[in-house]
């Protein structure tokens, strides 16, 4: 043990707050906070640029507790540092309903929680996104305004999860040298020793992906400090392996999986108090210890004052632009630009795939909104996410606006979460919709956190064609719509694509997915409206409810089929109307009367979507007809597939006639 | 170029078949088959133990094309080696409807396709599962019967995907020395050079996880052969980096991303024919070349004859056991054991969590079914997947029946796919249900392939309690039910848990998920039936439809609530019945009359499930009441959460009364 008594006491404050809170809740994870207390103490009292009184200061260092189950570590240091959101009462309410101190750190519950963690491996990828944002914004605004570090604390679990490799590879490639990852190397997982399931040399693994590395005693605060100092001089991202003892201080449980995820029990806590010479009552931090922590917080805050001065010295336009981005507001003129662009589309009537019309919309958007950062998981030419304004972000030049994420869908999604959380940027990027499955844990967190991340998911049905069932989404629209607080858009033409993009960008607290076709589609919105009709979620596209015998509900590529079916029905003197349903979630937010008017009174209701029926009951009821997929797709040219699976205007007409005959 | 002319011609046969097929389809990926042709030629003509005439021979070597987009490589070598399923006509029908030669290799379409690949990174993890199965079965049946290699061809995409790290880590830990991974190291991804997104030293990365490695010229068949020979002597799994040129042979496109995923065009193919001295017409393989390939196939097949002799020399019981496992049939006595066990449960009426009753059922099953291989992603004590029969599988002793997969949900799921595909074993393993999201791409492939993999997903609702919304599934039941050909079971008590396990094990062509509680539940099936009632998917648990005013549909933990609501309604003289719905998918398979009888005629229909409502319209219609979740969960003790979210018997009673009053 090489720490001074004071250093030990600072760290012990974390240990006892964590032990006591877990004990009171009789639930939680004391092992990590006890083991990583020296790391956190070193970081928060000697390195972290932050201001507990102004916790949202944009140029603060970010700290991500990737091993989110150690939440009491974070709550402890926030309380000790003087963050007002985390009082001692909150700590006493750990894991109780309504508390800011949830089981795992929940973004938005308290300042100082930079991201929601718990699902392992997400935090390190969030950290990569944050560190990337820092570099991109630094390139834009300069060292005096954007110049901070991102620290991530990871456990063995984070490093075993595959997403960590995607994050490590991306950070190494982009040489994100202001990213510093501290590994709580305690040799223990829930099941027991790490050696039960892994023998990876983590230091060598990080080196293989271009990282700077070091190894230290995780209970030697001076050694940790030296490693962080060294990290700051490296041109690469840094991985610091900190050898720790899980549950440090517990005489009978330290170093075992017994202390990972359960309260220690009164007896063992008493023994630990004795072992660590800690005489304070539960939830009491001795005044001199708390003072030292608070002083460290105050000292750190001085950097913010210096930053404020530098910021005030900027020209007014730069300040306004920086602040606008921080607020998450779009530039003035954005709406008008979309309206003008839609006007042009209604006149031009392009016949293009919606992945292409998405690109066309982005060409307009990226010209006006400088904070969008595009990307693709190595499908740039297929996802159409790169526009004329977006040069690649490279280690040599962070002043780009397009990230080649590599074949790393999951890491990409989680990095986008980090970028949105960082502030100042709006991330969007693409992959094939079928591979939204790879992104799913991160997409769920976008929704849970309520952040503006935009997922471009192209090749959204069997319309993908020959690549076959492994690449053809069938259940994915339903399962993405199932995520709470997630807007799933499926535009039918270039006008709807522009409107959906507008809505996605305007949804500050909700992530969006755009489901886009590979195949060309005609323009159906040929009459211009300033109003964003997709904002209703569903709207009458053709025909009227007054006389309709049949309502055809459809989305995206199947609008063309619905329109054709309507024309065929009209010819047979069966009046039909078509309702476009670009977004289920927005439709649900409309008034009951609007919803009733869109659902309409036609005796026959048919939904057409080249996907499974799940969720369509909402529109067509128990007696409606669903024309779509019943199982997996197949490998063949697109024309063959739509016929093979019976997703045609003819099938819709036949079904409508049969229904009408049965009712007659 | 160091190959002999003959070697070159053997490889060129792959190249031209691939080029010609892609050209005819005007769709596909010629780059990989052309670049990796020397690797495949070396492997198939000199190493692979297989018998094209008896392709399902159990002790064959397995070859997995993890980079599934290069499917023409596989179809070419299968045709050339003499597999009857892949004729030249099939190759001409590449990517057309009904062809065995789908866009990506589809398991079950043709012998020799060992797994479905395309979603990147899955194949290498499948290979780990296959190689693990080989070791486990070798430990059981001995070297004379089970002793083969697993070869995997991976591309850059497979290695960038996070799942590859999980697979690499697991294989390194388990020292799967009969696993040989060949890397088609061509420096090119779809977007361009690999350097656009990665600088990982892959060889160093594999070494860091305990692999044997080597690097060779991927166009030097002798060098590749030497590396494979060396690999066979290593006590570790081997990674061979084969430096290749993508689209090898194409004068103007080789070495670029232009040849990755598009037809070369007639002109370039002509130029390639000239460059490689290949004068044969499209789809024609010169007789001497085809003969050499076929001869290699015949030579390889000799090993099968030797094996047959060794197998015939075994004692009858061992032979019968081996063959039973190969057929995928359960041991005689299995059904009776389940019936006996259920009888005991109905009498004992245990009050345990279904994760515990799953363990109790497994204790019976694992005693009778020796081929089950359990596991957990480091949540063994929480998932309750380990029974008294299942010692850990370790590098020192493969004769175990439990795999500590580590914190690698995705790799675990994909490895289980590989184990099921290998044959001879029935894999099951667990994680928290919320983290089924991490497994999803592999779970979808279990379903697409139609294989018996059993996913144990515990902590299946807000009943998880304090860990909070990151760990509480709300949409997961719906999104798992959305996967085609996937049985999602949610048993309500120990009897249903036993029945669901029985059904999962008996479903040879369909994977299953068991959704299990953390919290204790009473036994509701207190009257014994030999019949497996869960096999109906839904059945009347209490009350009758004759007089019922209210039908309460529920699953799992909410059956207790439904039963309490029924009791409360009965007291108010409102007759109610309870329908247990352990499996939506099996219910859909019942006759219309059975389904109608279960749905019943009660005027009020209420579904109770601590999850989102999606999918329940099927049971309660448009006018039913759903009592469940509307969004994400929260961190708190379980009792508080059910009340907080209004999932209570009182809420059900209130809703029933309100509905009846409104209708009166």
UniProtKB/TrEMBL annotation, chains A, B:
Secretion signal span: none
UniProt family annotation: Belongs to the transketolase family.
Domain of life: Bacteria
Gene giving rise to this polypeptide: tkt
A Pfam family annotated for this UniProt entry: Transketolase_C_1
Lineage: Bacteria, Pseudomonadati, Pseudomonadota, Alphaproteobacteria, Hyphomicrobiales
Cofactor binding notes: Binds 1 thiamine pyrophosphate per subunit. Binds 1 Mg(2+) ion per subunit. Can also utilize other divalent metal cations, such as Ca(2+), Mn(2+) and Co(2+).
Its job: Catalyzes the transfer of a two-carbon ketol group from a ketose donor to an aldose acceptor, via a covalent intermediate with the cofactor thiamine pyrophosphate.
PROSITE patterns listed in its UniProt record: TRANSKETOLASE_1, TRANSKETOLASE_2
Protein keywords: Calcium, Magnesium, Metal-binding, Thiamine pyrophosphate, Transferase
Subunit details: Homodimer.
Family matches, as PANTHER family: TRANSKETOLASE, TRANSKETOLASE 1-RELATED
The UniProt record lists the keyword Signal: no
The protein's name: Transketolase
Transketolase-like pyrimidine-binding domain boundaries: 352-523
Catalytic reactions of this protein: D-sedoheptulose 7-phosphate + D-glyceraldehyde 3-phosphate = aldehydo-D-ribose 5-phosphate + D-xylulose 5-phosphate
The protein's Enzyme Commission number: 2.2.1.1
Cofactor dependency: thiamine diphosphate; Mg(2+); Ca(2+); Mn(2+)
């Amino acid at each position: 043990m090489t720490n001074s008594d004071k250093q030990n006491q600072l760290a012990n404050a974390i240990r006892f707050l964590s032990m006591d809170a877990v004990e009171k809740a009789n639930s939680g994870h004391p092992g990590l906070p006890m083991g990583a207390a020296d790391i956190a103490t070193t970081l928060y009292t000697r390195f972290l640029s932050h201001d507990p009184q102004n916790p949202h200061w944009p140029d603060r260092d970010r700290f991500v507790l990737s091993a989110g189950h150690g939440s009491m570590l974070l709550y402890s240091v926030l309380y000790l540092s003087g963050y007002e959101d985390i009082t001692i009462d909150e700590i006493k309410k750990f894991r109780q309903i309504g508390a800011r101190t949830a089981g795992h750190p929940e973004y938005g519950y308290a300042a100082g929680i930079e991201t929601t963690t718990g699902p392992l491996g997400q935090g390190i990828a969030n950290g990569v996104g944050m560190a990337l944002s820092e570099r991109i914004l630094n390139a834009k605004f300069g060292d005096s305004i954007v110049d901070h570090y991102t620290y991530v604390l990871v456990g063995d679990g984070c490093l075993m999860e595959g997403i960590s490799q995607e994050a490590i590879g991306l950070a190494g490639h982009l040489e994100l040298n202001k990213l510093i990852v501290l590994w709580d190397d305690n040799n223990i997982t829930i099941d027991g020793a790490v050696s039960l399931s892994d023998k990876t040399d983590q230091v060598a693994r990080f080196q293989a992906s271009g990282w700077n590395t070091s190894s230290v005693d995780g209970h030697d605060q001076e050694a940790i400090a030296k490693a962080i100092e060294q990290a700051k001089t490296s041109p690469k991202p840094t991985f610091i392996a900190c050898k720790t003892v899980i549950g440090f201080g517990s005489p009978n449980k330290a170093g075992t999986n017994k202390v990972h995820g359960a309260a220690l029990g009164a007896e063992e806590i008493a023994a630990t108090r004795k072992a660590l010479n800690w005489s304070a009552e539960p939830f009491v931090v001795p005044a001199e210890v708390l003072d030292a922590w608070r002083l460290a917080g105050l000292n750190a805050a001085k950097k913010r004052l210096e930053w404020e001065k530098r910021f005030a010295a900027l020209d007014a336009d730069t300040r306004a632009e920086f602040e606008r981005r921080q607020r998450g507001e779009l530039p003035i003129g954005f709406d008008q630009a979309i309206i003008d662009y839609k006007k042009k589309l209604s006149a031009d009537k392009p016949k293009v795939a919606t992945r292409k019309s998405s690109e066309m919309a982005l060409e307009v958007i990226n010209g006006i909104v400088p904070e969008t950062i595009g990307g693709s998981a190595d499908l740039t030419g297929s996802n159409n996410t790169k526009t004329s304004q977006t040069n690649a972000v490279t280690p040599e030049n962070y002043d780009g606006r397009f990230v080649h994420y590599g074949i790393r869908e999951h890491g990409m999604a989680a990095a986008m979460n980090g970028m949105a959380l960082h502030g100042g940027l709006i991330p969007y990027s693409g992959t094939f919709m079928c591979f939204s499955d790879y992104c799913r844990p991160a997409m769920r967190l976008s929704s849970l956190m309520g952040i503006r991340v935009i997922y471009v998911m192209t090749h959204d049905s069997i319309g993908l064609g020959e690549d076959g069932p492994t690449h053809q989404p069938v259940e994915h629209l339903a399962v993405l719509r199932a995520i709470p607080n997630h807007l799933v858009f499926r535009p039918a033409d270039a006008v709807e694509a522009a409107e959906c993009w507008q809505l996605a960008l305007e949804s500050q607290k909700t992530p969006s997915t755009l489901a886009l076709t590979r195949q060309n589609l005609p323009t159906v919105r040929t009459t211009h409206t300033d109003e964003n009709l997709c904002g209703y979620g569903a709207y009458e596209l053709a025909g009227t409810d007054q006389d309709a015998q049949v309502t055809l509900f459809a989305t995206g590529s199947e609008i063309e089929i619905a329109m054709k079916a309507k024309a065929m029905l009209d010819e047979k003197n069966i009046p039909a109307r078509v309702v476009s349903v670009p977004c289920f979630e927005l439709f649900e937010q409309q008034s009951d009367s609007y919803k009733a008017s869109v659902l309409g009174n036609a005796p026959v209701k048919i939904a057409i979507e080249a996907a499974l029926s799940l969720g369509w009951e909402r529109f067509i009821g128990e007696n409606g007809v669903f024309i779509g997929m019943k199982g997996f797709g197949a490998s063949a040219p697109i024309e063959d597939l739509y016929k093979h699976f019976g997703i045609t205007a003819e099938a819709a007409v036949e079904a409508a006639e049969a229904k009408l005959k049965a009712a007659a």
